[in-house]
Design goal:
Blueprint lengths: L1 H33 L3 H12 L14 H20 L3 H34 L3 H11 L4 H10 L4 H29 L7 H31 L10 H18 L4 H13 L10 H28 L3 H31 L9 H9 L5 H12 L5 H29 L9
Helix pairs in contact: 1-2, 1-11, 2-11, 2-15, 3-6, 3-9, 3-10, 3-11, 4-5, 4-7, 4-12, 5-7, 5-15, 6-7, 7-8, 7-14, 8-9, 8-10, 9-10, 12-13, 12-15, 14-15
Length: 414
């Protein structure tokens, strides 16, 4: 019986994966035709396929397959995003990235928390816990968008870098506030800053080490004996960097992003791949990222619980509106205006105000809070999913339009 039950589960999982791949490919083609980022179409397709609508796909949020897809998928997409970041751009905007990924998270969480306290009439500490959960932007959403929408390099790379670095701050703030809400601790700004610095330094070192090792093995003139296996090396590096940092209680996502930056800038270290090997690697990464993001967002859509969302939909929509139209603009202007080196224009700051999609990082935090029976967990989970739906379905499809209206699209010379 156990064997046949295991086989049945395997058959069901394989069938679900086949459906996701087949319908996801069609959804990707549709997104290309109507010129919107594919993550929005994948999310809608997932809702249609999920148990709440057609019931063709029913993969639970706490299943091993879902956890693997989210963990590895977000990590590999982050790695790809890091590989597109250039050192010369980072030199111009690093102050903005650091400030918006740290102080910006606090500002966003504070504004959203105060709004939630007023809208839902909940204790301030629970409201701030909701704000902290929603404060991180999502790399798995933003990186694919900027792969498809050709915004100016420094804008795209700033948004991608922020999304990679702010997950650590968001997680630290969320669990610090959780300790206060449950009476098991008290908030300490000094402790939070020290923890953030420790996680950041360890994550950066681990990522740099794995990225350099990968460059050495695939692009060194004499030691690059794995050049023809470069695609496999990237898979191993992503897994290795993530777990090396995670094992040291640091940000695995930060580590894989930094590994991507180092490998993407390998020429700076004197490494160079043959053109045909480089093309093969690029094709592999492009295809792998497409498959992973269609799985991530179709599964995310399939797991939307309309009954839960229905309890808080009006307040949740109001919170999402505050996040998009108040908290994000305030955060962007407060964090970018002091950066004189970057010299952000008003149009560039307006564009950054619109690029703050919420996705799997806040969803993961909300899921963890629910599993721990945190105060207000059901409300937090519901509002998080409403915010994910609104930001991805409203902001993602309009990114290119906003970029065009503001005259910020990339040209051949940018």
């Amino acid at each position: 019986m156990e064997t046949s039950a295991a086989i049945e589960i395997a058959r069901h999982t394989l069938l679900s994966c086949g459906l996701i791949l087949a319908i996801g490919t069609i959804a990707g083609l549709l997104a290309q035709k109507i010129r919107v980022p594919d993550v929005a179409v994948f999310l809608v397709a997932g809702i249609v396929l999920g148990p709440q609508v057609s019931g063709l796909i029913d993969i639970k949020a706490d299943s091993a397959l879902n956890e693997i897809v989210l963990l590895f998928g977000a990590s590999y997409i982050l790695f790809d995003g890091g590989a597109s970041v250039r050192f010369n751009v980072l030199k111009q905007v690093w102050v903005t990235i650091v400030v918006i990924a740290t102080a910006g998270v606090l500002i966003t969480a504070g504004i959203v928390g105060l709004a939630a306290c007023h809208i839902f009439g909940i204790p301030l500490i629970v409201a701030l816990l909701l704000g902290a959960t929603l404060a991180s932007t999502d790399p798995a959403t933003l990186i694919p968008i900027f792969r498809q929408v050709r915004i100016r390099d420094r804008l795209a790379q700033t948004a991608m870098s922020e999304s990679a670095f702010n997950d650590a701050m968001g997680a630290i703030l969320t669990f610090t506030l959780l300790a206060v809400a449950t009476g098991s601790g008290r908030f300490s700004m000094a402790h939070a800053i020290a923890d953030l610095l420790r996680q950041s330094v360890i994550g950066i070192i681990a990522g740099a080490a794995f990225g350099y090792l990968a460059a050495l093995l695939i692009a060194h003139e004499k030691l690059g004996f794995l050049a023809e296996y470069a695609p496999v090396v990237t898979l191993a590096v992503v897994i290795g960097a993530y777990f090396a940092a995670d094992g040291l209680a640091a940000s695995g996502f930060m580590a894989v992003f930094v590994a991507g930056i180092v490998l993407g800038n390998k020429e700076t270290f004197g490494f160079k791949m043959e053109p045909d090997e480089m093309q093969k690697l690029d094709d592999f990464v492009l295809t792998t990222c497409f498959i992973l993001r269609l799985f991530i967002f179709m599964l995310l859509g399939a797991q939307v619980d309309f009954a839960l969302i229905g309890q808080y939909w009006l307040g949740g929509a109001a919170i999402a509106a505050v996040l998009m139209l108040v908290a994000r603009p305030v955060t962007v202007f407060l964090c970018t205006l002091p950066d004189r080196r970057a010299r952000w224009s008003f149009r560039e700051m307006l564009f950054m105000c619109w690029t703050r999609e919420t996705g799997i990082i806040p969803a993961a935090l909300a899921g963890l809070l629910s599993g721990m029976n945190a105060p207000g967990a059901k409300l937090i989970e519901s509002v998080t999913f409403i915010t994910i739906l609104m930001t991805i379905l409203i902001q993602a499809p309009t990114t290119e339009w906003i970029g065009c209206k503001l005259g910020l699209m990339q040209t051949g010379t940018n």
